[in-house]
Amino acid sequence: MPGLLEKRRSDREEASIPTAGMADIAFLLLIFFLVTTTINVDTGIGMTLPPKLKPEQEPPPVKERNLMNVLVNASGDVLVDEERARVAEIRDRVKKHVLNYGEDPSLSASPDDAVISIKTDAATPYNTYIEVLDEVWMAYREIWDQIARTNRLPGPDGGSAGLDQTYSSYREYYNQLGPDEDNQIRDTFGAQISIAEPDTGE
Amino acid sequence: MASQKFQRGSSSTEPEFTTASLPDIVFMLLIFFMVATVLRETDIKVRTQLPQAEALTKIDQKRLISKVHIGPLKRGENQGDTAIQIDDALIENRRTIRQIMYNKLQEQPQLIVSLKVDQESEMQIVNEVQQELREANALRINYSSNREGPPPS
What we know:
The structure holds two protein chains of two kinds. By secondary structure, chain A is α/β, with parallel strands linked by helices. Helices cover 36% and strands 14% of the residues of chain A. Chain A has a domain at 64-195. Chain A has a five-stranded mixed beta sheet, covered by helices on one side. In chain A, helix 3 (90-98) packs across helix 4. Chain B is of the alpha/beta class. Chain B has a domain at 63-144: Nucleotidyltransferase, domain 5 (2-Layer Sandwich), CATH 3.30.420.270. Chain A: GO terms for molecular function: transmembrane transporter activity. Chain A: It is a single-pass membrane protein; Single-pass type II membrane protein. Chain A: This is Biopolymer transporter ExbD. Chain A: It comes from Salinibacter ruber (strain M8).
């Protein structure tokens, strides 16, 4: 018995950090991060609503040529500038409208002036609306992709877009942006998509 | 016995904690975190089958988001009627949205309202909610939607 006591005492002096539990700690941390990390981030189409106008205030004027009207009715038919169009056509129509640079007098004078207005009927299915909105956004995405790939602005006198390098796509450029960094592409080539004021009273 | 004792004393790797109870501690902690971590997704009383889209943006900052669910009621007396749910509560009077959103905006000036709208809803209700959001000056919105087709690898 005294021998045992002595042995234990000498054992204590030799103590080293046990590593057997390390694996468990690692698992614990792993599980903790697994639990707290949210894998499915919210995705969606971001929009900014127009601010509420005061009753006496008129909506800001937009020249007819710069405005591209997209109307969607209850059965999902699309009217682009008073012409029937298929949903799949919208993307090219938007790109043509935005990248007109004053060439065609019925289309926009410059990308900065171009406004895409989307108007829906009260009974339009939400699905169709998102489809149309998505096409309009994708038109801009494709233009941005082009800018990211070439680092040049589109148009006849397309200057440098001011990126430090070229990227394979807009998404790649967007993903490498820090949280406080400015999005150069969107700053120089913005998208003006407006949700039209719904008709009040029928 | 004496020689054995000597040998053991000279060995430098001998003593160890009893690790037998370590798994218990780990499991206890694990269970604690599992219980304490709020995975609470509010009880959604309306069905929201989100539409699919391509031009998606991610919202990384979850704390900026406030969700508005619009869709048919899952159960109850008026099952199938389109209803609006913000946080836990169904909205009875649509006029109250502006007050709710205004209060949220005071707490979080960078508020993003995530509209989780069922794809079969009609635009009328969406427009109404948007008008309410404009009244509250909560202008940053996000039409929550999923990626088209199978997720990219």
